[in-house]
Design brief:
Layout: H1 12-22, E1 29-30, H2 47-59, H3 72-83, E2 92-97, H4 99-112, E3 119-124, H5 130-137, E4 140-145, E5 147-148, E6 153-154, H6 156-165, E7 171-175, H7 188-200, E8 204-209, H8 218-221, H9 223-231, E9 235-240, E10 253-258, H10 262-279, H11 286-296, H12 298-330, H13 337-340, E11 345-347, H14 352-362, E12 364-365, E13 371-373, H15 382-392
Parallel strand pairs: 1-12, 3-4, 3-7, 7-8, 8-9
Antiparallel strand pairs: 2-10, 5-6, 9-10, 11-13
The chain binds (2S)-2-hydroxybutanedioic acid.
Residues 13, 33-34, 127, 129, 180 line the site of (2S)-2-hydroxybutanedioic acid.
Length: 393
């Protein structure tokens, strides 16, 4: 059986992780995979999370199955975090999923089964793994323009023009905040304009939100999707807790569906449960129950929120620091956009050769499209980093 198989090429972001780990140079800098790092280059367990885990271990009485929807208390709490406390509970249903990727996959499969040739439009560029996830689930993938590499800005006019022209009822994948890989985001006014086009053209919004709290704040980062939830008849959300609760390896996420009414929402979530049953059956419980405990416990909730805010502010400081250093070392404003972007990533606009040269000559690791993980920037090494980048231009 296996002799017929070709060796898989593998995911480029994960391959970069392997190369970085194998590099023995002491001054190496990891700006690759989207994992938050503190000033010591570590990805610690958040303090609120550690406390909630200890609570969970002393209170968990059984490891029996929980159910296809996962931890229902988690689902309610995480949905309120995304949609705000006063969302329309009559029309919204949620299901826990194995990470944001698991949520993307099950929702994609649900949507692929909804009509022959279902098509999803993704931003150009988008997170590379969106493509295999959606195509494996059976969706046809097309792209809408999104990013202007020269200015580092969103090509909003072009995006809207493209979306106005696509067939009604097609699916539009949107990054809820902190666009991955570019870091260029829509303003709330742009979300509003986009919302009108989605409604006018009967397009189905599918929001991927994996970095809530990493951009402008927990509520600010969800403002666009909350606006959509108020005006569109139907939508889906794939949510990840990997980054904002730093539970990467615990695989915690949720799929949230908004239906036209309670009856339709019930039907859709029952189909989603079936999709899960046919693949992994039930989601892992540990991380979700820990996050539920945080969100339901006032002091832990405040502690987590303060930790998240400190992470966000640290990334902002690193952004302005790098933009300033690059301005000095390149003697130009070419990289000023780094300071204005939000979230974990920015795309620098370097060629693949320049990215390779940075890795080989300077032990600086970034994704081949020149995406950098801002949280990986060395607090005390911005000057050296900027000098290295300037040297390959
Ligand atoms: C990233 O984009 O680096 C993260 O979302 C990690 C991943 O799985 O690709």
């Amino acid at each position: 059986m296996f002799e017929m198989m070709k060796k898989a090429e593998g995911d480029k972001i994960l391959a970069l992780m392997g190369l970085y780990r194998a590099d023995t140079r002491p001054n190496k800098v990891d700006l690759g995979v989207g994992v938050y790092k503190d000033a010591h280059g570590k990805t610690p367990i958040m303090s609120a999370l550690g406390k909630a885990e200890r609570w969970q271990i002393s209170h968990q009485a059984s490891k029996s199955y929980v159910g296809l929807a996962g931890d229902v208390g988690f689902n309610d709490a995480i949905t309120a975090l995304a949609l705000g406390q006063d969302y329309d509970r009559e029309r919204v249903r949620s299901q826990q999923a194995p990470g944001g990727s698991g949520a993307l996959r099950i929702v994609a499969e649900l949507l692929a089964g909804s009509k022959e040739g279902a098509t999803i439009w993704v931003s150009d560029p988008t997170w590379p793994n969106h493509i295999p996830i959606f195509s494996t689930a059976g969706l046809t993938i097309k792209h809408y323009p999104y990013f202007d590499a020269d200015s580092g800005q969103v090509r909003f006019e072009a995006m809207i023009e493209a979306l106005r022209a696509i067939p009604e009822r097609d699916i539009v994948l949107l990054h809820g905040c902190c666009h991955n890989p570019t870091g260029a985001n829509l303003s709330l006014d742009q979300w509003k304009e986009l919302g009108s086009v989605l409604v006018e053209r009967s397009l189905f919004p599918f929001i991927d939100i994996a970095y809530q709290g990493f951009g402008d704040g927990l509520d600010e980062d969800a403002a666009g999707l909350r606006h959509l939830a108020q005006i569109v008849p139907e939508m889906a959300i794939a949510l990840s807790c990997s980054k904002n609760f730093a539970v990467y390896c615990d695989r915690v996420g949720a799929a949230i569906l908004l239906g036209r009414n309670g009856d339709e929402a019930d039907k859709a979530i029952s189909q989603l449960a079936l999709v899960a049953r046919k693949s992994y059956s039930m989601p892992p419980n540990h991380g979700a129950s820990v996050i539920r405990h945080i969100l339901q416990t006032d002091d832990l909730h405040s502690e987590w929120q303060a930790e998240l805010e400190a992470m966000r502010l640290r990334m902002l400081t690193l952004r302005t620091g790098l933009a300033e250093s690059l301005r000095q070392h390149t003697n130009s404003d070419r990289f000023d956009f780094v300071a204005n972007h939000r979230g974990m990533f920015s795309r620098l606009g370097l060629s693949l050769e320049q990215v390779e040269q940075l890795r080989l000559d300077h032990a600086i690791y970034m994704v081949g499209d020149s995406r950098i993980n801002v949280a990986g920037l060395p607090d005390d090494g911005l000057e050296d980093l900027a000098a290295a980048i300037a040297s390959v231009l």
